[in-house]
Structure to design on (482 residues):
């Protein structure tokens, strides 16, 4: 069905000359300076530089599918003259396609933000833009540092990292791909909400009740037994919107609100083929459009740029005198420890969550500290305390077990005098008679490589002082891995 959305009349890519790009981006920079509220409306074209295929480009997912369908017809001798012309056109344009990335990523979850993602995040951080509205579910704007719960990001077609409660509406930002495997395309049930305890109905099975039940569209659990994009108070769901489904009203209404208050909307990397949502940008007072291929709205915009998104935004930031923000280490707000990720999540996505956690810890570091219990011990009483190792504040949700095989605690003047901890929490509780400080030696057995037999050792000295407040040592960097 999606192959039918490929318009061969709009498949060819066009590129402005350097002087045209310079002139148009200068105009765009002036529009941004004059705007009190700028928003972005983006499609798959902003992620092609990250190694993710688009849909209707010369080598896009739906274009490739259409090519395969036409080639099969040709092999079977059932291709019409018009279809043969289409096939030749698609093959010709695929050979002329503008290169966007050195390689394609094997899994979307391993992709990193492009310069365009980071340019938009940079403009938002400098208060020159307010929000990104995207049809992409790849999570790359989230990885670029934008937060949907802060009003900076609207994902019209969902986000593969978001688990949304249909009861209280909370969006759990997870560290894994949120989607039940081997489920019906129009079933989005995921689990029970840990905040409001909304849960799937007792008679939910994940199967269509009757073979002739309609699914998708405006249907829901009462109609067919599947948890749809529209159902309420049926537990948590993934937010991925599939073909033939309604958008979640939460995202639709937020996109509507953001675009209606905008002075300028910059449309980037989209063929504007999904006509049920392409009206949003034109709520803004002015519009600019960046895309290599023609769109149905080329004559409606104030500035039309024929270029890759990265080229435009590189030039734009230079004109505005802004350095590109570096790609941050992403720390999902509601990340789960690896052992608590639901067992039905595919292994490859769990492995990706491990890689994410390891990167956060190696770049963010760990803290060694202590707490006292009670905080002010009575004279003559035993002094109890806990020495711990935990992720630094910048990566607090990371799972320490992904980088530590064990932690050895040595406390010469306390009981126990030594302890080895092999799993989270990496902490030991001890006591001593003396009110004097306890010198703790903490040895971290760091897995520099996930499957390396011999971990690398990192020693941290820490002083437990009962006369002062509990302390936390400064974050310490683990040995460089990446």
């Amino acid at each position: 069905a999606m192959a039918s959305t490929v318009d061969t009349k709009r498949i060819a890519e066009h590129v402005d000359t350097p002087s045209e790009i310079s002139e148009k981006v200068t105009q765009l920079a002036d529009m941004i300076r004059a705007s009190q509220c700028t928003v972005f409306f983006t499609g798959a074209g902003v992620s092609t530089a990250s190694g993710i295929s688009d849909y209707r480009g010369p080598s896009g997912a739906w274009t490739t599918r259409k090519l395969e369908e036409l080639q099969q017809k040709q092999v079977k001798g059932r291709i019409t003259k018009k279809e043969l012309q289409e096939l030749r056109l698609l093959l010709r344009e695929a050979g002329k396609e503008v290169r966007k990335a050195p390689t394609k990523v094997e899994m979307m979850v391993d992709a990193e933000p492009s310069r365009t993602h980071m340019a938009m995040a940079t403009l938002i951080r400098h208060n020159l833009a307010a929000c990104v509205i995207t049809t992409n579910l790849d999570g790359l704007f989230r990885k670029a540092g934008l937060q949907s719960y802060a009003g900076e990001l609207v994902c019209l077609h969902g986000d593969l990292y978001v688990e949304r409660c249909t009861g209280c509406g909370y969006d759990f930002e997870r560290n894994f791909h949120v989607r039940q495997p081997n489920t019906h395309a129009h079933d989005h049930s995921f689990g029970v909400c840990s905040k409001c305890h909304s849960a799937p109905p007792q008679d939910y099975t994940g199967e269509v009740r009757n073979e002739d039940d309609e699914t998708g569209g405006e249907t829901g659990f009462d109609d067919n037994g599947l948890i749809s994009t529209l159902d309420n108070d049926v537990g948590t769901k993934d937010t991925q919107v599939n073909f033939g489904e309604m958008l979640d009203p939460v995202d639709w209404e937020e996109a509507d609100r953001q675009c209606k208050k905008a002075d300028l909307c910059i449309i980037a990397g989209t063929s504007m083929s999904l006509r049920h949502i392409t009206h949003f940008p034109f709520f803004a007072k002015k519009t600019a459009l960046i895309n290599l291929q023609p769109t149905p709205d080329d004559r409606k915009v104030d500035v039309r740029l024929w270029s890759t998104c990265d080229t435009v935004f590189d030039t734009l930031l230079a004109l505005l005198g802004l350095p590109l923000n570096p790609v941050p280490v992403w720390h999902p707000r509601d990340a789960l420890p690896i052992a608590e990720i639901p067992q039905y999540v595919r292994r490859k996505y769990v492995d990706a969550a491990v890689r994410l956690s390891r990167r956060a810890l190696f770049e963010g570091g760990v803290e060694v500290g202590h707490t006292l219990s009670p905080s002010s011990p009575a004279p003559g009483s035993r002094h109890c305390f806990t020495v711990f190792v935990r992720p630094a504040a910048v990566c607090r949700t990371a799972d320490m077990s992904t980088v530590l095989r064990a932690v050895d605690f040595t406390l010469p003047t306390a009981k126990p005098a030594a302890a080895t901890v092999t799993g989270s929490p990496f902490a030991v509780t001890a006591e001593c008679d003396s009110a004097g400080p306890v010198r703790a030696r903490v040895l971290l057995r760091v897995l520099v490589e996930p499957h390396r037999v011999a971990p690398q050792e990192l020693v941290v000295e820490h002083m437990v002082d009962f006369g002062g407040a509990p302390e936390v040592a400064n974050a310490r960097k683990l040995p460089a891995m990446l």
